[in-house]
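Could someone model iron/sulfur cluster with this protein?
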Amino acid sequence: MRCVPDCYLCCVETDMILTKEDVKNLLALGYELEEFSEYRDGYLRLKNKNGMCFFLNERGACRVYENRPIGCRAYPVIYDVEEGKCKIDEECPAGDTVGPEEFLEKCKLIIRALPQLIRSENSGSSVNVKHET
Ligand code: SF4
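Reply:
Sure, complex below.
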């Protein structure tokens, strides 16, 4: 895909769900679980600070890009449980630059990560691995 220059729309008001592997990687960088994550809508997700992902810096870049969560790597491919399939997030301005091979690879990445999601005790049964902006 070809991101729109200087676009970080996908890191604004992020709703990204974290996997066990994501948490392990981010903890290994020295971040504290409480500073970058919180339970919302039944799952452990990235925390926002002033309306932006905790990891977005003042220049609009990801501070953990090399170790960013699986869902961030897969974006703008998302998995919609209600529809039971991967799709491109309509809100991404570069969504139409994702080719079929990339789409398939990213979809596989998400599906492999689904069993690794971290649920809170009172969560429901549906999962929407959607990177909402
Ligand atoms: S971890 Fe990085 S890529 Fe993912 S939402 Fe946060 S700033 Fe964006």
